[in-house]
């Protein structure tokens, strides 16, 4: 997507909303965001997520291209792509972003399976790996995969209006006491979960291989259980920092 001028975007958004006779709260309800989020857009403090550009444009009665450029495109000043092209560009970016996430997860999965295969080739049985290497690596991969493919990065508007400490989407429920989830920290948390859990899934058996090579079979099991706990604690600490910083 082309670079957006935040201030120009905000002024245009304010103008369009005023023409429609909508308050910030009314516009926010249509998009499942809070009036505070709309206020930030209009002040140029932030921009909508890519997924919101098309529904925002449709709500305000303009094309996605007009919304992105911050001005109505008519007659002689129509230099950009038409509305259909603008919508296609946004849809294509959303598809491309999801494709990248899927490829990222697939790469982490293949590397992890290859590392488990190396451990098996080094003489560690599947039964010995099942309680630690396989279990923890697959748990990390499951979290990463869900946040790559299944998680929705847009929360309902009431998350921006109230301090809600849990998010439940499908089978996954995340509860952090004292932390308020909203549409500012949740997309960042999704990205953190994707990257950290995939990295942990790859890192865990890799360290196991190194431990076996350097310390032998007798030390690896105790060490790997301790490492799993350390990685889980780092994950929790990272989530708390990201959530609180962007709350």
From TrEMBL:
<dbReference type="Pfam" id="PF01381">
    <property type="entry name" value="HTH_3"/>
</dbReference>
<feature type="transmembrane region" description="Helical">
    <location>
        <begin position="102"/>
        <end position="122"/>
    </location>
</feature>
<feature type="transmembrane region" description="Helical">
    <location>
        <begin position="134"/>
        <end position="155"/>
    </location>
</feature>
<dbReference type="InterPro" id="IPR001387">
    <property type="entry name" value="Cro/C1-type_HTH"/>
</dbReference>
<dbReference type="InterPro" id="IPR010982">
    <property type="entry name" value="Lambda_DNA-bd_dom_sf"/>
</dbReference>
<feature type="transmembrane region" description="Helical">
    <location>
        <begin position="195"/>
        <end position="217"/>
    </location>
</feature>
<keyword id="KW-0812">Transmembrane</keyword>
<feature type="transmembrane region" description="Helical">
    <location>
        <begin position="223"/>
        <end position="243"/>
    </location>
</feature>
<keyword id="KW-1133">Transmembrane helix</keyword>
<keyword id="KW-0472">Membrane</keyword>
<keyword id="KW-0238">DNA-binding</keyword>
<feature type="domain" description="HTH cro/C1-type">
    <location>
        <begin position="13"/>
        <end position="67"/>
    </location>
</feature>
<protein>
    <submittedName>
        <fullName>Helix-turn-helix domain-containing protein</fullName>
    </submittedName>
</protein>
């Amino acid at each position: 997507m082309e670079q957006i001028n935040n201030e120009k975007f905000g002024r245009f958004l304010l103008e369009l909303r005023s023409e429609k006779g909508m308050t910030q709260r009314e516009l926010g309800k249509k998009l499942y965001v809070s009036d505070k989020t709309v206020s930030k857009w209009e002040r140029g403090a932030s921009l909508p997520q890519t997924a919101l550009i098309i529904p925002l444009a449709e709500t305000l009665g303009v094309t996605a291209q007009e919304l992105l450029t911050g001005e109505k495109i008519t007659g002689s000043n129509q230099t950009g792509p038409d509305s259909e092209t603008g919508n296609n560009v946004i849809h294509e970016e959303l598809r491309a972003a999801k494709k990248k996430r899927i490829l990222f997860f697939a790469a982490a999965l293949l590397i992890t399976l290859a590392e488990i295969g190396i451990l098996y080739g080094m003489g560690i049985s599947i039964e010995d790996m099942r309680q630690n290497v396989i279990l923890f690596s697959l748990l990390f991969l499951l979290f990463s995969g869900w946040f790559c493919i299944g998680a929705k990065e847009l929360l309902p508007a009431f998350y921006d209006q109230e301090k809600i400490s849990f998010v439940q989407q499908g089978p996954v429920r995340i509860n952090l006491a004292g932390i308020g989830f909203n549409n500012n920290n949740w997309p960042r948390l999704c990205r953190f979960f994707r990257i950290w859990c995939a990295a942990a899934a790859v890192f865990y058996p890799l360290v196991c291989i190194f431990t076996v090579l350097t310390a032998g079979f007798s030390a690896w099991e105790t060490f790997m259980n301790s490492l799993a706990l350390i990685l889980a604690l780092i994950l929790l600490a990272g989530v708390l920092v990201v959530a609180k910083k962007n709350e």
